[in-house]
Structures are given as C-alpha cells and as structure tokens.
Amino acid sequence: MPAADYFDRITALVCRVFDVEPATIGTDTPFAEMGVDSRQRVRLLVEVEVEFGLEIDLDELDRLVDIRNAAEVLAETIEGDRPVVLLGQRTG
C-alpha cells in the first residue's frame, strides 16, 4: 500500500496523541510547529505500533517529523523495506 493510504489513520493517531484538531494540520505540517518534542514522538511511534500490530525500529524516530513521513515509515515497515517484528513475537 502506498504511504498515502495511511494518512487518515496516522492523522487520527496524531490528533489523539498530540491533542490537536484534524482541521488544524496537514500531511506536511511539521510536528515541531505543533510544539511536539521527542518524547511525544516516541509516544506516537508506540501508538502506531499498537494500532498496526508491529514494531518499528527506534532508529526511525528521526523520520517522524510530519504525517507524510510517519506514513512512509509505516508503509516501508509493512511492505518489508524495514525489518518487521509483530508484537508478541519479540525475541531476545
């Protein structure tokens, strides 16, 4: 699935996690403009993992700067461009 197919679900998560209204943000609105710090981006990463039932490498955190990039990280993880560990199947 292309990243654009995830925009609505990522937008809903962003609105819930960052407590913003959907009408106030676009897919390219930088999270920094909303006052989002790195801890909040970690929380978003966790929420995306829970919502989609997978684990995203913490190294991807720096790419979570707006909805478009968050959707790209998700799409790449799901499509197999990134290693995927389904939640509940972690090893080590």
Task: Please outline the helices and strands.
Elements: H1 7-18, H2 38-52, E1 54-55, H3 67-79, E2 85-86
Antiparallel strand pairs: 1-2
Give a brief outline of the structure:
Residues 4-78 form the Carrier domain. It comes from Amycolatopsis vastitatis. This protein has 92 residues and is mainly alpha-helical.
Report what the structure shows:
Strands 1-2 form a two-stranded antiparallel ribbon. The protein has a single domain, classed as Orthogonal Bundle (Non-ribosomal Peptide Synthetase Peptidyl Carrier Protein, Chain A). The chain is built from three helices and two strands. It is mainly alpha-helical and 92 residues long. It has helices at residues 7-18, 38-52, 67-79; strands at residues 54-55, 85-86. The chain starts with 6 loop residues before the first helix and ends in a 6-residue tail after the last strand.
CATH fold topology? Non-ribosomal Peptide Synthetase Peptidyl Carrier Protein, Chain A
State the major sheet: 2 strands, antiparallel
End-to-end CA span? 30 Å
The low-confidence parts are none
Overall shape: globular
CATH class: Mainly Alpha
Q: How many separate helices?
A: 3
What percent of residues adopt helix (DSSP H or I)? 40-55%
Average the pLDDT over all residues and give the rounded result.
89
Rg computed from alpha carbons, rounded to a whole number of angstroms = 13 Å
Trace the largest sheet across and list its strands: 1-2
Count of discrete domains? 1
User: Structural class from helices and strands?
Assistant: mainly alpha
Tally the beta strands.
2
Q: Topology as H/E string? A: HHEHE
Gross CATH architecture: Orthogonal Bundle
Q: What is the percentage of strand-forming residues? A: under 5%
Q: What is the H level of CATH, i.e. the homologous superfamily? A: ACP-like
